[in-house]
Write a structure and sequence with these properties.
Elements: H1 7-16, H2 19-30, E1 33-34, H3 35-39, H4 46-58, E2 62-67, E3 70-75, H5 80-113
Antiparallel strand pairs: 1-3, 2-3
Length: 131
């Protein structure tokens, strides 16, 4: 069963809701990055990038390592599993519903394409002519 009131799931979807954070995750999936490297393509300050990274950290998607003044971020994809399970629950729900709809539409198409039996009227008796 899917837990619909999981705070960790809320943090995950909040983190994934922003395109800047999704782009950061994409870059982190390739290799660990410093905060300044993550901020570079967005023309944003290090403070703004750090705020985005903190959201990713709260969701458990990023682990930050500090060495002196250098902050290196690494991707931790494990929390994505919870989000995937939540999505799969609804995927099954909609797949079942769409399969039912498809079957109904196909049955309707078959019924519409089937030759219709015409109701035959009894043949008319010829009129008698009067002499």
């Amino acid at each position: 069963m899917v837990n619909h009131s999981d705070p960790q799931l809320d943090c995950l979807f909040h983190a994934l809701a922003d395109p800047t954070r999704r782009h950061m995750l994409q870059r982190l999936a390739q290799t660990p990055q410093t905060v300044s490297a993550l901020a570079e393509p967005f023309a944003m300050s290090l403070a703004a990038a750090s705020k985005h990274i903190k959201v990713l950290e709260r969701a458990g998607l990023v682990q930050r390592e500090v060495q002196g003044r250098t902050h290196t971020c690494r991707l931790d994809a494990h929390p994505l599993h919870g989000g995937l399970e939540w999505i799969r629950h609804y995927e099954r729900f909609w797949t079942d519903r769409l399969d039912t709809l498809e079957a109904l539409l196909q049955a309707e198409d078959r019924d519409a394409a089937a030759p219709r039996r015409s109701i035959r009227k009894p043949p008319r008796k010829p009129k008698r002519s009067t002499p």
